[in-house]
Design brief:
2 domains; binds nicotinamide-adenine-dinucleotide; transferase; single chain; 12 strands; 7-stranded parallel beta sheet; binds zinc ion; EC 2.3.1.286; Rossmann fold; 3-stranded antiparallel beta sheet; elongated
């Protein structure tokens, strides 16, 4: 469990050859039943920044940790004030060509399962179902008191009502649905608590740094990987163990691992190939070649 985001890692062996040739990915997909593991890089073309890419937000912003969220009211106020503004950008974001291509590959059986580390719901908006949201989803809220979940939209309405004059000039959105915001603005922000139990602390239903992914969800992912023939990583640096473990698992089981990502990843040593191309272009090309665009 990590409370600080990792930015660097030691390579786990000789990295897979880097290429811009999609032939190997096309060949493996054409045999069907490939499991996709996607990351923040798939959503950058929808206007949501990643953490560790060229414009990665970890270079300027440290995300909230679970420990700070549960122990500090000030921390929660800062989180919700910023997230209240950032949420609109996330809620407005639309799936891009990459998400649409994954939906087409799934509909045609080239892909048998989709696990995403993203919390933006864009695979689902593009029509992919089912999707395992490994790190949860920003469109749900969970009460830390009674554990009930509710829609983020309903909370959004309540936060607007509690903070009628809360409007701030802000331009930059961070990937966890957060924006950069001045301290005075944060201090003015009024929090609301759970409607169901009357007092519980509300948290977005996403896995924060320092928090574990629920065990049953991890098991579902392992099963999905086991049922597939190969693992295709799309737009993830695989820095976080939470995603990397499925790459290691697939490689250990002798399944081909393919990666499409701009820039190296922590899983490169386990892959047959890493295709260094922008995902919208690469995936559109693949659906065209496989006749499912
Ligand atoms: P990451 O930021 O660590 O890595 C993203 C990778 O994608 C980088 O290597 C980057 O170079 C590459 N990339 C960016 N745009 C690309 C493009 N158009 N085509 C090809 N490659 C591209 O992301 P991660 O590995 O998913 O880990 C970040 C964690 O933070 C996730 O676990 C997730 O929970 C959270 N997160 C979520 C979102 C989201 O929901 N959209 C966004 C940022 C972070
Ligand atoms: Zn409650």
């Amino acid at each position: 469990m990590r409370t600080k985001p990792t930015l660097t890692w030691t390579p786990e062996g000789e990295p897979a050859p880097r290429t811009t040739d999609l032939a190997e990915v096309e060949r493996v997909l054409s045999e069907g039943d490939v499991v996709v593991l996607s990351g923040a890089g798939l959503s950058t073309e929808s206007g949501i920044p990643d953490y560790r890419g060229e414009e990665g937000s970890l270079r300027r912003h440290t995300p909230m940790t679970y420990q700070e969220f549960v122990t500090s009211e000030e921390g929660r106020r800062r989180y919700w004030a910023r997230s209240h503004l950032g949420w609109r950008t996330i809620a407005r974001a639309r799936p891009n060509a990459g998400h649409r291509a994954v939906a087409a590959l799934r509909a045609h059986g080239f892909v048998s399962g989709v696990i995403t580390q993203n919390v933006d719901g864009l695979h689902q908006s593009a029509g992919t179902a089912p999707v395992i949201d490994l790190h949860g989803s920003l469109d749900r809220v969970v009460c830390l008191g009674c554990r009930r979940t509710s829609a983020r939209e309903a909370l959004d309405r309540r936060l607007r009502a509690a903070n009628p004059s809360f409007a701030a000039a802000t331009t930059r959105i961070n990937p966890d649905g957060d924006v950069d915001l001045a301290d005075e603005m944060v201090r003015e922000f009024r929090l609301v608590s759970c409607v169901a139990c009357g007092s519980g602390v509300l948290k977005p239903d996403v896995v924060f740094f320092g928090e574990n992914v629920p065990r049953d969800r991890v098991e579902r992912c392992y099963r999905t990987v086991d049922e597939g023939r190969a693992l295709l990583v799309l737009g993830s640096s695989l820095t976080v163990m939470s995603g990397l473990r499925f790459v290691r698992h697939a490689a250990r089981s002798g399944k081909p691992v393919l990666i499409v990502n701009k820039g190296q990843t922590r899983g490169d040593a386990h892959a047959q190939v890493r295709v260094d191309l922008p995902l919208g272009k690469a995936l559109t090309e693949l659906t065209g070649r496989l006749g499912c665009s």
